[in-house]
Amino acid sequence: MRLLLIAFQFLTIIPLPFTVRCEKEDLGRSTAFFPLVGLAIGGLLVLCNWLISPWLARPLCDALLIALLALITGALHLDGLADVCDGLAARGGRERFLAVMKDSQVGAVGAVGLMLGILLKWQALAAVPPELKWQALLLFPVLARFGQVLTLTGARHARQDGLGAVFVQGPGGWRLFLAFLTAASASIFLLGSKGVIAAAAVCMLTLAGRLFFQRKLGGLTGDTIGCISELNEIIALVVISALPLIKF
Fold first, then answer.
1. Which residue has the higher pLDDT, 153 or 104?
2. Which residues lie closer than 8 Å to 180 by C-beta, 6 or more apart?
3. What is the spatial distance between Cα 213 and Cα 30, in angstroms, rounded to a whole number?
4. Any alpha helices (H) in the chain, and if so which ranges?
5. How far, CA to CA in Å, does 108 sit from each of 70, 78, 111?
């Protein structure tokens, strides 16, 4: 329970009415519960959608849900997306890429990448059929946070400092297995066999992103993990929106 609360505190800004003891190594150990936190985030989105959808047009409702997601998470991973876009646009090698990502200032390319990421997520959610919307709202945060665990497990860290290094050292095979059970169960329960397609898409994008950053930087940072997570949220919604067109 303590590790679940640590994961909840790290992945959201929702305050707890009590203090949870957290050692440095607990951050990595808490990754087994990341998909459960994603399920809680999805539950809040479903509740908000239930409250506001009768009163607002679908596009505005979906935009507010995406804004709520950024608020709940403290825009933690959006920051990673912007920093990675700036790093990719910078000229130079590995050290230049890392230096640009560490800079707290957001550049022009980072701002464009951030806007495009939010726009794509909003439009992907808007494209989800109404009969699948509550399932999508529950599932896509779960899959993206499972993607974080998959990204971290067995990876190398590009820096010796920073949260990325702390988390890379923590996940192991059994934590990945627990996270996988949560994500797979949610996928099948919410969308049946077609949910496996969304989960598979997230896994493929995660592994491709991890391979790219490990070749580019020699390892992962907190920003690259956040970037992959944001892309996973988008791809999960895109695939879910296309599920009614898939016949098998």
1. 153
2. 146
3. 23
4. 2-11, 24-29, 34-52, 58-72, 76-89, 94-102, 108-126, 133-152, 163-168, 173-191, 193-217, 222-242
5. 20, 15, 5
How is residue 154 written in tokens?
């067995």
DSSP string, 124-177: HHHTS-GGGHHHHHHHHHHHHHHHHHHHHTT--BS-SSSHHHHHHTS--HHHHH
C-alpha–C-alpha distance, residues 91 and 100, integer Å: 10
Mean pLDDT value of segment 230-238? 95
Q: What distance in Å separates the CA atoms of residue 231 and residue 217, rounded to the nearest whole number?
A: 19
Of 171, 176, 175, 198, which Cα lies nearest the Cα of 187? 198
* Count of CA atoms in the C-beta half-sphere (13 A) of 200: 6
Residues 30 and 9: their CA atoms lie apart, in Å, by 10
Whole-prediction pTM value?
0.91
C-alpha 154: how far from chain center: 18
Tally of CB atoms within 10 A around 64: 16
What whole-number distance in Å separates Cα of residue 94 and Cα of residue 92? 7
CB burial readout 112-145, b (16+ within 10 A) else e = ebbeebbebbbbbbbebeeebbbbbbbbbbbbbb
Polymer length in residues for the chain: 248
pLDDT value of position 177: 87
Q: How is residue 45 written in tokens?
A: 């989105």
DSSP assigned state of 23: -
Where b means 16+ CB within 10 Å and e means fewer, 153-169 reads bebebbbeebbbbbbbb
Residue 170 predicted with pLDDT over 60: no
